[in-house]
Amino acid sequence: MKVEKLKGFRDHYPEDMEVRNYFFKKITNAAENFGYQLIDFPSLEPLDLYRLKSGTEIVNQTFSFTDKGGREVTMIPEATPSTVRLLTARKDLPRPVRWYSFPKVWRYEEPQEGRFREHYQFNADVFGLDSEEADAEIVGLASSILDYLGLSGVYEININDRFLMEYVLKDLNIEDIPDAFSIIDKYKKVDKSSFIEAFKGIGAGEDEIKKILSLLGEKVDIGNMEKKIKRVVNNYEEIKPRIERIKKTFDLIGLYTESKINFDFSIVRGLSYYTGIVFEAFDVKGELRAILGGGRYDGLSQLFTQEKIPAAGFAIGDAVIELLLKRQNLWLKRNIKESYYICNLSSENDDYIIKVASVIRSLNKIAVVDMTHRKISSQMKSASGFDFAVIIGEREIEENTLTVKNMHSSEQSTIGYDEFFLKLRSGNN
Amino acid sequence: MKVEKLKGFRDHYPEDMEVRNYFFKKITNAAENFGYQLIDFPSLEPLDLYRLKSGTEIVNQTFSFTDKGGREVTMIPEATPSTVRLLTARKDLPRPVRWYSFPKVWRYEEPQEGRFREHYQFNADVFGLDSEEADAEIVGLASSILDYLGLSGVYEININDRFLMEYVLKDLNIEDIPDAFSIIDKYKKVDKSSFIEAFKGIGAGEDEIKKILSLLGEKVDIGNMEKKIKRVVNNYEEIKPRIERIKKTFDLIGLYTESKINFDFSIVRGLSYYTGIVFEAFDVKGELRAILGGGRYDGLSQLFTQEKIPAAGFAIGDAVIELLLKRQNLWLKRNIKESYYICNLSSENDDYIIKVASVIRSLNKIAVVDMTHRKISSQMKSASGFDFAVIIGEREIEENTLTVKNMHSSEQSTIGYDEFFLKLRSGNN
């Protein structure tokens, strides 16, 4: 019998995990420096949590089932609803609240490049602030994370505003906003004629569709965004305050990052809970899917409580980031801890050898004891990849010494036990 | 509508997560110092992976279901089968292989103190070695982890040997070994008469049951273990080599830890895949469930491949450890990074403030900007819990200075921007 892993799921071996972990820590480190604090929540939640607000597409793509107690449950497809549940369950938390999490999430969809059925997803959210400053901080954190990862100049951020878009659509006499967003969400994936047909299907006239297309055409800088809007809406003054807010947000984002920030009317994001700014980051070459995405979602708290709590956040999946880091040749192993491989040439005296290993470990360095009792040449082969080989035979045990070989320089010498640890403690090895 | 979290699942807020994370890092740090390397695998696996070798009890307690593609799958109830799958899938790995992982695992069972339906489980395993040295390293790592956590003297380790137990049971003419183990596994949970009845049910005679009871009575040191065995088995010489191995293992474990190590014939562990040493750690007061458990399982590789690969490992759940650390008053918040709360008294000039925050962050310290535009007293209240408050108003912006208050000593002074960062960089704040 041979049991294989499920389709769309990944195994990760140490050579991979070391690098992943290195970058995961960079991400969480950036979040911590911004004052975001780690939370955690169940990987399994009631399916109802996603039914109302996440959009039907997501619910259809869940690993959901009925548990042994008859409950309809799902492996979480995203972190936001759980995060908001935690927030609303605690009335005592002084706001604003800044949180991050790094759970696995699951989606039942066809695996493709940069998309799996299971992935780690970093999330950051700020609650209790509805302002340009808060919007800019969230985009600024997203951008800073990519900068911390070494991706400055490799990505750009595309921004839209759902509030603005909703105004525009209503101004163009389009009533069915959710469907309109869902059509716009597929703008880049379908051909122009089916896009137009879809909009006709929800009652839009030809003029209106032309206007929408004039917006979606290409991403622009913030000045040209204003010009485009002026050409499309009937009463610019009415929406001007919102435009001012967006302009101010763009200014503030520029204080966090030197990366390119565009306005892109075609970014609406599939999730139905967004209410304000929405954004995605892409590689500038445009080769990959979105690196991250997020936005403002002020209404989601009402799933759990009367109160409408301002909220903005974003999520980064691990898969596209990994692809991008690999293409930038940044996916490299970093030796963080000094490592020692202890070749054991004595047949009996484990005491001395295990003592040596224990002391090395107590200094927060890696020590592996060879337990194979093979000949020295085979043991030394296993030592490659370590920083040092420590050779201990009968002579060393008798004389209370160690033979230490620097595996990078190939220098080798026999030194006293005390001298060795004196050097190790002072960091002069 | 109010959606609540599922029964037996936990939310974790920042105050909790900080402490958890601190201890999780202690655990992984110990594993890394022993040369164990991190792996990761899916949280969802084919149910077949557990059907054959994990024992029926576990399979009945899984969150298992049929996925949208008709596959019988389960949220993983333990890490060992997946770990062995990863091992056998890679023929190129030089052995011994030392791995650790820290996944969530799920069991559908009644929640009780120290037992939830979802928990994090640390796992460490060594593959390719079948020796006293390897057995001792695994127990030694388990013990060192508890020592790293600050629990020295608070726990003891109880050890048995499934190979020895199987020999004894067969020597007492008991044929149905799996059932016998399963009865012994419940020894401490049932009364004596039902224990005796259960053994009679698998054909054991009164004399044999008396002998088994003489072993299980209480845990002993390694010398008394030998005496007990001598009184029970018919031909001591036949099993003597195994006793010698166990004695040697105990000697070696003593090189890793000063904690108490007992031999306990009643420890057999529920899982059907163990083949040699088995062990559990308990708090010395005996108040809690097992803190960790593991053993040797040389046959499990044959789920995936012809080859029988020697293997030994253990797992630590997060729940009992947390209870124990709390009872020892070790569950305390540790400030790891220096933190700065920036009170913003300017209404317009975000540039200066965000620049200050960015530079603090770039020095790997925490900086939070107050974005509420409240009066200074309210902002200062939010600064409590931080190491420093940085107050920036119109005057500071004009003069290119910062007013810094040490929140521990209450000292406050206004200093120049350059001077501030010079001090910060040199670590003399």
From TrEMBL, chains A, B:
<feature type="binding site">
    <location>
        <begin position="273"/>
        <end position="274"/>
    </location>
    <ligand>
        <name>L-histidine</name>
    </ligand>
</feature>
<feature type="binding site">
    <location>
        <position position="125"/>
    </location>
    <ligand>
        <name>L-histidine</name>
    </ligand>
</feature>
<dbReference type="GO" id="GO:0004821">
    <property type="term" value="F:histidine-tRNA ligase activity"/>
</dbReference>
<dbReference type="GO" id="GO:0006427">
    <property type="term" value="P:histidyl-tRNA aminoacylation"/>
</dbReference>
<feature type="binding site">
    <location>
        <begin position="78"/>
        <end position="80"/>
    </location>
    <ligand>
        <name>L-histidine</name>
    </ligand>
</feature>
<dbReference type="InterPro" id="IPR015807">
    <property type="entry name" value="His-tRNA-ligase"/>
</dbReference>
<dbReference type="Pfam" id="PF13393">
    <property type="entry name" value="tRNA-synt_His"/>
</dbReference>
<dbReference type="GO" id="GO:0005524">
    <property type="term" value="F:ATP binding"/>
</dbReference>
<keyword id="KW-0436">Ligase</keyword>
<keyword id="KW-0963">Cytoplasm</keyword>
<keyword id="KW-0067">ATP-binding</keyword>
<dbReference type="InterPro" id="IPR045864">
    <property type="entry name" value="aa-tRNA-synth_II/BPL/LPL"/>
</dbReference>
<dbReference type="InterPro" id="IPR004516">
    <property type="entry name" value="HisRS/HisZ"/>
</dbReference>
<feature type="domain" description="Aminoacyl-transfer RNA synthetases class-II family profile">
    <location>
        <begin position="32"/>
        <end position="325"/>
    </location>
</feature>
<dbReference type="GO" id="GO:0005737">
    <property type="term" value="C:cytoplasm"/>
</dbReference>
<keyword id="KW-0547">Nucleotide-binding</keyword>
<dbReference type="InterPro" id="IPR036621">
    <property type="entry name" value="Anticodon-bd_dom_sf"/>
</dbReference>
<dbReference type="InterPro" id="IPR004154">
    <property type="entry name" value="Anticodon-bd"/>
</dbReference>
<feature type="binding site">
    <location>
        <position position="121"/>
    </location>
    <ligand>
        <name>L-histidine</name>
    </ligand>
</feature>
<feature type="binding site">
    <location>
        <position position="269"/>
    </location>
    <ligand>
        <name>L-histidine</name>
    </ligand>
</feature>
<comment type="similarity">
    <text>Belongs to the class-II aminoacyl-tRNA synthetase family.</text>
</comment>
<dbReference type="InterPro" id="IPR041715">
    <property type="entry name" value="HisRS-like_core"/>
</dbReference>
<protein>
    <recommendedName>
        <fullName>Histidine--tRNA ligase</fullName>
        <ecNumber>6.1.1.21</ecNumber>
    </recommendedName>
</protein>
<dbReference type="InterPro" id="IPR006195">
    <property type="entry name" value="aa-tRNA-synth_II"/>
</dbReference>
<dbReference type="Pfam" id="PF03129">
    <property type="entry name" value="HGTP_anticodon"/>
</dbReference>
<keyword id="KW-0030">Aminoacyl-tRNA synthetase</keyword>
<keyword id="KW-0648">Protein biosynthesis</keyword>
<feature type="binding site">
    <location>
        <position position="107"/>
    </location>
    <ligand>
        <name>L-histidine</name>
    </ligand>
</feature>
